[in-house]
Amino acid sequence: MSELLVLSLGANEDIKQSIVAFLKKHRIEKAFICGAVGSARDLLFVAPEAMTIPPNLRKTRVEGPVEIVSFTGEAMDVSEMEDKLKALYKNLEGDCFLHLHASVAHAGGSVIGGGFWEGKSFMLLNIYMIPQKYFD
Questions:
Q1: What is the pTM of this model?
Q2: Which residues have a Cβ under 8 Å from the Cβ of 52 and sit 6 or more positions away?
Q3: Most CB contacts within 10 A, which of 30, 68, 122, 132?
Q4: Do the beta carbons of residue 38 and residue 65 sit within 8 Å?
Q5: Is 5-134 assigned to CATH 3.40.50.300?
């Protein structure tokens, strides 16, 4: 069975930068991100506006504190990306590719989500991942 790793973030940490640093520290080349528990703030979500390829992405900003309802995705070294994925993400920065999706709830219960583009932890946030491949 694969091991489950936990990345624990304190207040105001950049979520994507923290995931990339964690992967590098543990020499993880590819991982499945299977969930998260905690709170976040100042998020940016993206979603396709129409049935075009490559898609035009609509950006939605989510301000203030929210609770994570779902958080899934994949993280990998760019050398692990499939050709179809590389064709969609032509302007990659860095050597790690994160493909994340999330939904979050505001106080009062309204929920929003989509492709997770950016955000920070609010108070505490645990991100759970299962490594699929390590660097040699």
A1: 0.93
A2: none
A3: 68
A4: no
A5: no
